[in-house]
Design goal:
Blueprint (H helix, E strand, L loop, with lengths): L2 H15 L6 H8 L3 H4 L6 H12 L1 H4 L10 H17 L4 H5 L7 H15 L4 H28 L13 H17 L5
Helix pairs in contact: 1-2, 1-4, 6-9, 6-10, 9-10
């Protein structure tokens, strides 16, 4: 048993039972070990959850970084969509990710993305806030989408019609992008 195997088993458990039901006791049972042996790899459940969040975000972390020839808007849209797709890959993916902090290679990727946005004509503060707003918007949308899915919320109400989650996400993202486009320095 190594750290990666523990995280993989924990993510499988997450997909089966949801974030609220993930416990080190259940994880140890799944791995066929005693609960204290997990603490060899992770000092706390919080550290385990952080490693799970990092591993769950691997598909997005593998997405291509922007290239100088890319248009900032096209890249920003695809980057945000990639983030959403990755969060949706895991049960409670948005809840697992919420509150996590980037480190190491993630910080390098963020710096490259920021450099690209700055080179594309976005003022630094606007580029920072755009990345933050898109991230928080995406996490919020996925939180709601995953909560609705968990509740089986398919009801259509005269005041609140059924929501096509992807269309709603895309509409909000377009609004963010339209606002950001007004800030680009030409």
């Amino acid at each position: 048993m190594n750290r990666e195997a523990v995280v993989a088993a924990a993510l499988d458990l997450l997909d089966e039972v949801g974030l609220d039901a993930v416990s080190t006791r259940q994880l140890a049972k799944r791995l066929g070990v005693e609960q204290p042996s997990l603490y060899y790899h992770f000092r706390s459940k919080k550290e385990l959850l952080s490693a799970m969040a990092d591993a769950a975000m691997a598909p997005h972390a593998a997405a291509p970084l922007p290239q100088p020839a890319d248009h900032w808007r096209d890249w920003f849209l695809e980057n945000t969509r990639s983030f959403r797709r990755t969060l949706l890959m895991r049960r409670d993916g948005a809840r697992l990710h919420a509150g996590s902090t980037p480190g190491g290679a993630d910080l390098d990727r963020i710096a490259r993305k920021m450099d690209f946005l700055l080179a594309s004509g976005l003022p630094e503060r606007d580029a920072q806030m755009a990345m933050l707003a898109a991230s928080r918007y995406t996490v919020g949308c996925v939180l709601e989408e995953q909560a609705d899915a968990g509740l089986g919320a398919d009801t259509d109400h005269p005041v609140i019609p059924a929501i096509d989650q992807e269309s709603a996400f895309e509409t909000g993202l377009a609004l963010l992008m339209d606002g950001l486009a007004q800030r680009v320095e030409t």
